[in-house]
Amino acid sequence: MPKIVTDSDRLQKRRIILDAAAAEIARYGYDRANINTIAERAGIGRGTIYLYYTNKEDVLLSLLNSIGSMIDEIVCKCINSDQSWPQKIRDLALAFAQMALDHNDFFRVHISALHGVNRDIGQPVAFWLMKSFHRLTAALVQAIQEGEIFLYDPQTLAWIILGTLESMALLPNILNLSESLTQERANSLATFIWQGIAPSAKNNMVLG
């Protein structure tokens, strides 16, 4: 009797393929990555990949959408929590740090696609980044109106926060940082960000 493939089985297989693709593309780049090697990393036959994805470009698209939605989910969860803004910033920093540890290859592909030469490849990343940016901007506007955050331009703050967190997320693998040290850096970064945007922030200099 043939094995019945459930939706859960299909989802797990897709995750295995994406994990393998992330590892391959993170190390060799999109152009040098190939379906055969990805299949070998995933421990499956090449033909199996085509049951889930049309081609290598389709694999990359799914990979970029996966990490983009993961980042957006983190942003949404943290800023919509009932925590104070100092805690929200801390939760964001810790979540990005943990994501970098758990999904480092995904994140390296994400950054490479966003800042790479081929801008078409980066479109899914830009789409998700803009969603996260607008979510964070809207939350900052409300926080500023309610006096929870110093009166800065909310869009500028959103770019600074997201850009800083994404830069931090690249460091654990590059610097070979342990999980505890990565979390310590995230806490320090959150404190630094909060000190700059807290309602009591003073000595702010406007350049013009």
Strand % is: under 5%
Helical amount:
over 70%
| Class from secondary-structure proportions | mainly alpha
Low-confidence stretches: 203-208
Assigned CATH class of the domain at 57-197: Mainly Alpha
* CATH fold-level label of the domain at 57-197: Tetracycline Repressor, domain 2
Cα separation of the termini: 75 Å
CATH superfamily heading of the domain at 57-197: Tetracycline Repressor, domain 2
Radius of gyration: 20 Å
CATH architecture of the domain at 57-197: Orthogonal Bundle
How many helices? 9
TL;DR?
The chain contains nine helices and no strands. The chain is an all-alpha fold.
Written description of the protein model:
The structure is a single chain. The protein is elongated. It is 75% helix and 0% strand. Helix 6 crosses helix 8. The C terminus is likely disordered. With 208 residues, the chain is an all-alpha fold. It has a domain of 141 residues: Orthogonal Bundle (Tetracycline Repressor, domain 2), CATH 1.10.357.10. The chain has 9 helices and no strands.
List the helices and strands and how they pair.
Layout lengths: L6 H26 L2 H8 L3 H4 L6 H24 L5 H18 L1 H12 L7 H23 L8 H22 L3 H19 L11
Brief descriptors of the model:
single chain, 208 residues, mainly alpha, Tetracycline Repressor, domain 2, 9 helices, 75% helix, elongated
